[in-house]
Description:
By secondary structure, this protein is an alpha+beta fold. The chain has helices at 16-22, 60-74, 84-96, and strands at residues 31-36, 42-47.
Amino acid sequence: MAVLAVDRRGRSTLPEEVRRELGIGEADQTLVLLERTSHGTWELIPAAVMPRDQLWFRHPEMVARIAEGETDLREGRSSGASSPEALKALLDDMKQG
């Protein structure tokens, strides 16, 4: 168990052990979400801040496309090229098809 002191303005510092277990380093500036549990208690959840130009990567359609591509690779449904010329020919063929 760890103790969290809260000052008059509502500020507190997470104990070192808690920061370590949440994966929050000394140099990190991390957001921590407080989420209400079904038991009526609160849970601390470290939140990763994602730059706006990378938000597309978490879009459900992109997540599904990436999962499909990983499955294709695992199951051997992929194409490759051994030279720049072969790669160009493969890409040209893909554009046609």
